[in-house]
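The authors assume throughout that readers already know how a fold can be written as C-alpha cells. A single example would do more here than another paragraph of explanation. An entry of this sort, consisting of the sequence and the corresponding C-alpha cells, reads as follows:
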Amino acid sequence: MLTLAELKIAIIGLGYVGLPLAVEFGKKVPVVGFDIHQKRVDELKSGHDHTLEVSSEELKQAELLTYTANLDDLKDCNFFIVTVPTPIDDYKQPDLTPLIKASTSIGKVLKRGDIVVYESTVYPGATEETCIPVLEQVSGLKFNHDFYAGYSPERINPGDKLHRVTNILKITSGSTPDVAEFVDQVYNLVIEAGTHKAPSIKVAEAAKVIENTQRDVNIALINELAVIFNKMGIDTEAVLEAAGTKWNFLPFRPGLVGGHCIGVDPYYLTHKAQALGLHPEIILAARRLNDRMGEYVATQLIKEMVKKRIQVVGSRILVMGLSFKENCPDIRNTKIVDMVNALKEYELDIDIYDPWVDEEEVVNEYGLRPVTTLVNNKYDAVIIAVRHNQFINMGDTNIKALTHTNGVIYDLKYLLNKDSVDIRL
C-alpha cells in the first residue's frame, strides 16, 4: 500500500479546478501538472494564469510543482487526480469524452499500487462503470488488485477569492476502506477546512451532482416567481427582501443560470435516472425554465422599448457582461449568449462589453467580438447582465449616461438604484 512519504501526485487538467489544487499540493509534495494544451503549460511555466484563479506569487510558492504536456513525464507518479471538464452535448446529454480520454492517458502510465482519483462531476456510478474499465483495458491491470480508485468532487467557485480550495470542506472516497482512508489523508495535507469521508464512491458522486441540482431548482423557482411578479407589476426584489426577513427563507435571486456547474450538472443526474426508467419531473422542469430565461429577458427588453416608442429594428443595444458570473473570465455555458441570440432576431445592433473576458476566446467560442471601450449617449438600451466590480464602481450616473435620454436600462443584477432603471428581472 502506498504511503504519504512515497507520494508523487499527477494532476490531469490544469484549468479552474486542477491548477489551484496542483499549486496547493505543490507546496507539500512532488506534483506534476499535466495538460494536453502546450500553450497552457507554457503560460504556467512563465508564471501566469489567464484564468486569474492563481496569482503569479502563488505559482512561485509551489516549489515542488512542475508542468508538462508530455505523458511520459507522469510515469513516476503514483497518485493521479483527474480534473478535466465534463460538459453536455447539443442534446443535453453527458459528454464523457474528456474523462475517457484522460482515463486512457493514465492507463498508459498506470502501475501496480497506483491510485486514480476523479474530481470531475459525473452521475453516480460513472467512475466505476465508465472510467475504471478504460483504465483496466489500457493498462492491463486489475481494479482493486493492481490499482485502486477514489472520487473527491471539486468544489471550486471560479472568481471567489474568499472560498478557496484549502478552506472548502472536501468530500473524499475510495474503492476499498484502506484506499478511502489513504485518499482522505492525502487531501488532508492541503485542505485546512477538513474532509468528509463518504462511505462509497457512488455516494460521493451523488453528493456532488445534487449540490448544484438543488441550487438550480431553487433558482428556477425564483425565476418563475419573477415572471409572475413582473406580470402583476410587483417589484420582485422588494418581495424577496420582505420574505427574507423570515429566518429560514433561502436568499436566492432570479437570473440567467449558466456556467459549467449549475447549468450542466442536473443533466448528469437526469441522464442516469432516465437510464433506470425514471422521469425526474422537478429537475427537468427547473432546467427548462432556467434555459428559457435568456429569451424571456430579450422579450421583456423589446416590450419596454416599444412602450417608450423606440424604433426596435436597427436600435443600438449594449450588453454589460458576458462571463457566466461576476469578477471571473469564465465564459463556459454563459446564458447571456442565449439572450444575445434572442435579441438578434429583432435585427438589433448589439455591443457586448466585459473587461474580464478574453476577446479571442469569445470570438472562437461564440462568434461574438466584444467592444473594448464605452461611449456615452450611444445606446437605445443597456442591459446589465453581470455584477462585475467595474460596473458597480461606474455607478448609476455613468451607466445611465451610456443611453440616449429616452433609453432603456434593464438591470438583471439589481446593481443600480431602483429609480435609475426602467426594468428589473
